[in-house]
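Researcher: Please generate the 3D structure of the following complex. Treat every line as part of one assembly.
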Amino acid sequence: MHRTRVRVVEDALDANATIARANREDFDRHGVAVVNLMSAPGAGKTRLLERALDELPGVRAGVLEGDVAGSFDADRLSLLHIPVAQLNTGAGFGGECHLDANMVRSALPALPLGELDLLVIENVGNLVCPAEFRVGEDARIMVCSVTEGEDKPLKYPLMFRACELVLINKVDLLPHLDVDVDRLLGNLETVNPGVRHMLVSARTGEGVDELRDWLAEIPGRVRAAAA
Amino acid sequence: MHRTRVRVVEDALDANATIARANREDFDRHGVAVVNLMSAPGAGKTRLLERALDELPGVRAGVLEGDVAGSFDADRLSLLHIPVAQLNTGAGFGGECHLDANMVRSALPALPLGELDLLVIENVGNLVCPAEFRVGEDARIMVCSVTEGEDKPLKYPLMFRACELVLINKVDLLPHLDVDVDRLLGNLETVNPGVRHMLVSARTGEGVDELRDWLAEIPGRVRAAAA
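Model: Done. Output below.
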């Protein structure tokens, strides 16, 4: 009599998780640490990268830019003379409002992974769906502009929970807003207790050194965790 | 011999379009004009409504609030003493990043349609997906905050094309930003030539009278079109 051994394959039907693992294996093989950068539209992701990736000490960085349409951000970042690839969700991916693991995988051949220590994946501007799709990253950063108001952590809790670092951007505008940054931080603490945050301004440079240090330490932390 | 006549039913498989038509028929039967209000998170939709719906001359207005989680905006608008219903996409709708016709339909029993001239549906904050789902509305307004930058019409063209009115909000902050509003308007003209726009500030009240007039005229325009 034949005995059939049934092995339960967890997540077997979750294509995104399968492809995210394949991405991760590629990243690990090339020794590149990967950050998924998320925010609402216009929160300042690209400008923060322009600041923080410029002269990142001892780290060879690259960027994968995700947008529905256009290559405006990739064009800006290419001025840093680092490898940048543009991924448009509008052409070929039905105008998706987020990056998923398969889209990221399709773009990897455009990047010299073996020559990078750190890859930043700048997601499509959206406070909902990007949080639902892992793409093979080691860490997730979200940017929240103070101009968006104090209530965003409570209204978009999944996004604020799905990250290891929250950048509160555009703090130079606080004197001109009716926004209480302590209340914003209290709401963040409510949905993601203890999460690391930094008050930054891509415009004035406030807090950018702290962000640069955090980014520069990721490749070492990933290597230490893998060893 | 039987002859079978095959009638092609357009959009028969598009459940959203079918339900949007049903919503529209309900709105028409009750004589209520409907506006779908869309923007990125934190662009100022609710605060503009607080301003514009207060003392809207001769128009009985109500609001359907769409959010992933919470009822913060509905609570704020209820202070205007108008009918307000809250629709959460997080509970029961899988945390959807937009409202669709079926979600709106599920919320209609919570609103006294027969007592309204104008219903404003405040969509989930998102510059991508809400533009893809008609919900039975007569007109679509989108709000773009100047803090989001000049490039948003080019990066999210579907949203900027899918509306009859674009509100450029937070213009009181322009002196404190590196944003050229003429360039923003030029990009808007590129993706949606001739679309009506207004420069507004929910904080200072600039442009709110013009918005209030536009909203007050919608019920009459809808009735005239139906006659």
